[in-house]
Amino acid sequence: MPNLSHRLIALAARLVPASARGEFRREWEAELAWEARHGGASGGRLLRRAAGAVPDALALVRQQWSADMIRQDVRYALRLLLHRPGFTLLVVLTLAAGIGANTAMFSVVDAVLLRPLPFKDPSRLVRVWENDRLNHKPRYNVAPANFRDWQERTHAFEHLAAFMTGSTEMTIESETIHLEEAAVTTNFLDALGVPPLLGRTFTPDEKTRPRNRVLILSHTAWLNWFEADPNVVGRTVRLGETPFRIVGVMPRGFAYPDREIDYWRPLPDPLGPDFDMRAVHFLSVIGRIRSGVTIEQAFADLETVNAELQKQYPRTNDQRGSTVVPLRESIVGDVRQPLYVLAAAVLLVLLIGCGNVANLLLVQAGSRRRELAVRTALGADRFRIIRQLVVEGLVLAIAGGAAGVLLAVWTTRLLARVAADYVPRITDVQVDARVLAFAVVISLGTGLLFALAPAWTTSGNDVQNGLRDGVRAGAGRAARRLRSTLAVAEFAAAIVLVIGAGLVVRSFWEVLRVSPGFSVDHVLTADTSLPSRYDGVVSLHQFYSSVIDRVRAVPGVTGAAAVNNLPMAGPGWTTWLTIEHRPPPAGEPPEVGYRVATPGYFETMRIPLEEGRGLSDADTTESQRIAVVNRALVRRFFPEQSPIGARIRIGPNPNAEWRTIVGIVGDVHADGPDTAAAPELYVPNAQDPAQLTVVVRTAGDPGALASTLRGIVRSIDPAVALYDVHTLDALLSEHLAPRRFTMGLLGGFAALALGLALLGIYGVMSYLVVQRTREIGVRMALGARRGDILRMVVGEGARLAAIGLALGVAASLVLTRTAESLLFNVTPTDPSTFVAVCAGVTAVALLACYLPARRAAGVNPLDAIRIE
Amino acid sequence: MRYITYPTTLVLHAIANGVKYGFDIADRTGLQTGTVYPSLRRLESLGFVRSRWEDEKAAHREQRPARRYYEITAAGTAALDVALQRFENLGRLPSRARNA
Predict the structure, then answer these.
(1) Which tens digits make up the pLDDT trace of A644-678?
(2) A-B contacts (CB, under 8 Å)
(3) Is the CB of residue A365 less than 8 Å from the CB of residue A457?
(4) According to the 3-state scheme, what is the secondary structure of A583-595?
(5) Among A690, A665, A666, A676, which Cα is nearest to A614's?
(6) Where are the alpha helices (DSSP H) in A619-727?
(7) Which of B26, B35, B68 is closest, CB to CB, to A30?
(8) pLDDT for res A30
(9) What pLDDT was estimated at residue A457?
(10) Could you tell me if B27 and A42 are in contact, meaning their C-beta atoms sit under 8 angstroms apart?
């Protein structure tokens, strides 16, 4: 027992800071000896007494970390850092860039992916689609009759609600504005569970005409168009010609299905005759699952109903199932991977930054070796020195973190503005308490990470060597090895990023190389919205003909036409295709893209006519019904014969007139150059009425024509609204913006990473040269030539670079796969990108080694030997 | 004025009454050594007590190592007055402290 007591005290003593350890042990041993001698104590009693040594040791440790001493350390660290403003600034800026980029990226990931949707019980909300297994389209809009049957026959849902989006002209008093609308089932807002700010949501009876002439404003529309009028509920506005009463205003931040929506209005009853159909699919559907029901059970419930419908309606519902996806997934699913890739990239940048800072601190620690040795000789223990170095690291990290947060605030604002159109929910991004907490954790973590390594190697030096070597010798072999390891690791990480960015840049270039199938430069486009009195083929045709004729007469205009749906302007129209003399397929007929255009459309867009003829003024309601098809349609439906002269029928009506195919045009990548061209057909607007988008090709700047176009439309009919006026160039650019955004960010991060890594290699080599100045002098005195010295130093650097390169390439081969969805026409292990990046990066790495090597080779042997 | 806790007050009170050594203080106050020693460290860091080592020779005569003893300082005396007053007001001062 007495032995046990002594062992316990020895154990507790190991916890005690070295400066107090001797006295601690002496005191406890003396007390125990006294107790044993005078108290006649039993072994148990002695052990109980000795147990107090552990709390005592902990109290001494706590005292070592007392606020006063920490304050003293911080003061000392600050003084030291202010003494070396260049070093401090470099470190703080490096950290600010790393921490700022990470904090900004975290705010974006938090806003977009992590924060729950702003609806009641968002985990119970799902998006529901039809799953067209026949045509491999798992996310297909829902036919109204199917929706009705789902609503009536399923049990798993508290609400199933449908919506459609569109745009209209709203007249408020005498002013007409163009607004985006969502026509929704009356339970839509209840399904989302968000109460209105003002007024009420829709009542079930508002699905029937004329009671459905009510609408609820979005917060933004209420601010922008009604000056936040608190008495707006009850006011009447006109949508087209029809008066609608405002019954509510939704709160700020409520934006479903998207942030563009200005108002919601009841969708006319899907039970009504207009909607009793299964062949057309245009409803988007959301559901609120009943509490306690899983998403799998809800899916199974829908599939049971689908099986019944397949039996009941084999012609339209053959192989039609459902797809159910959590609502959050449906909103942010597409951006998840790019965001995670970017987040991983900034984390790498931060780690590289930490590596650099650690390297800088190692240099500093090396040059402070004598100071630390003096302190050790004067009684500071290792723990005390580590603490001082850690405090210095933390002070730097906190300064870097503070600057980083400022940078993050500014960057997130910029990101939210730049990416608002293609990253859902990013407008909600803000630097809030969570983000600040993240920044604090990451700053402190960073501080510890880069301060610990130098602290460990430095504090381990023996005092005698430290005092003797002083400044010149640096921090010894361990530190040198650590610095080289850090430089290699940084370089490897930078290579991963540069290769990743290289692949994304290469993909972007591949996208740009794909011809969209038409010429985008020098084209102005403008959407038109016509009052409801234009309701027939003749009036619509006449209106567009006169606009186009007048535009064509404008000097500088080389072509003008109109089309119902421009390429790259969102999802286009589709129709069913039935080919004469061919047996109809099981289930629904195949679906193809469908465009209504005026004569001159192909010429204006420069879509090549490959066979037959295009659309002409001779195609009218009186003449033969015709269609022009694209090459993709020919490939799919007429692989072995020319389709010219073949007859087709479009749409669901089995009695519709046959149309004759009169021409074949080139493929257009309607959803952008990075998607495949789909089968499409074109019909003349004289035979099929539609509201169209005007396209004008000019010899000069197309933007300059906008006001002329407005003037022409106004002079023909002032009631026609012209909106979304932009150039085709801008449309393409907008389409490529998400790619450009990812590419820009990743490229920026990669450049930053590479710069930091090169700085790391340069630092290591420069330091090496300084350390070996004497050795180099001796070598030169003994006959080594300049070239030998250059080779020696560059060779050393090249060895580090080669190891980093090998590690980086190996890591890239694995990691680039995770970014596959960001690539286009490029494999994740694209050899040309790998080779190009390796060659380029090696070249700059060698340059980073060459500069210190040249300095080494310029050393005067006599001066070098004299250094001591 | 820094406040000290109730057990620390008991320890200081014992020292003020001439109990000098760690284990003796534990015996007098009835506190565990794991409470007495951290209190002593705190009192010392506050400057309320100071410690010395007893004469080596005396200890040697008894064939045991020298013990460390604690004495109250002027600041400690003032602090003890305040603490005793405070705990008295709270009705918490036990008879042991009063009588010690």
Answers:
(1) 999 998 877 778 889 999 999 999 888 777 778 88
(2) 63
(3) yes
(4) CCCCCCCCEEEEE
(5) A665
(6) 631-637, 706-716
(7) B68
(8) 92
(9) 64
(10) no
Instruction: Of A403, A691, A426, A429, give the one whose Cα is nearest residue A534.
Output: A691
A295 contact partners, CB below 8 Å, separation of at least 6: A126, A289, A324, A326
Please identify among residues 22-81 of chain A the ones whose CB lies closer than 8 Å to any CB of chain B. 23, 26-27, 29-31, 33-35, 37, 48-56, 58-60, 63, 66
A52 to B37: CB separation less than 8 angstroms, yes or no: yes
Residues 6+ apart with CB under 8 A from A384: A17, A18, A19, A64, A375
Nearest-CA neighbor of A126 among A290, A337, A253, A306?
A290
The span from the CA of A374 to the CA of A471, in Å, is 13
**C-alpha–C-alpha distance, residues A595 and A573, integer Å:** 7
Euclidean distance between CA atoms A191 and A161, whole angstroms? 7
Q: Does A851 touch chain B (CB under 8 A)?
A: no
Q: Determine whether the interchain pair A31/B22 forms a contact, defined as Cβ–Cβ distance below 8 Å.
A: yes
The Cα A798–Cα A852 span in angstroms is: 13
Is B23 close to A23, i.e. CB distance below 8 A?
no
The CA angle A828-A829-A831, to the nearest 5 degrees, is: 135
pLDDT tens figures, A400-413: 889 988 988 898 88
3-state DSSP call for residue A580? coil
A-chain CB neighbours of B68 within 8 Å are: 23, 26-27, 30
With beta carbons less than 8 A apart as the criterion, state whether A598 and A684 touch.
yes
Contacts of A772 (CB under 8 A, 6+ apart): A856
Task: Return the beta strands (E) in A521-620 as ranges.
Answer: 523-529, 557-563, 574-579, 591-597, 609-612
Distance, in Å, from the CA atom of A832 to the CA atom of A852, rounded to the nearest integer, reads: 31
DSSP A635: H
Give dist(CA A407, CA A403) in Å, integer.
6
Tell me the pairing of strands A523-529 and A137-140.
unpaired
Residue that has been written with the tokens 């601010």 in this structure: A223
- As a whole-number percent, the residues of chain A with pLDDT over 70 amount to 92
Two tokens at A562? 């109109």
Within 10 angstroms of residue A26's Cβ, the number of other Cβ atoms is 16
CB of B21 within 8 Å of a chain A CB? The answer is: yes
Return the CA Rg of chain A.
37
Residue located via tokens 């090597």? A853
Closest CB to A37: pick one of B21, B33, B64: B64
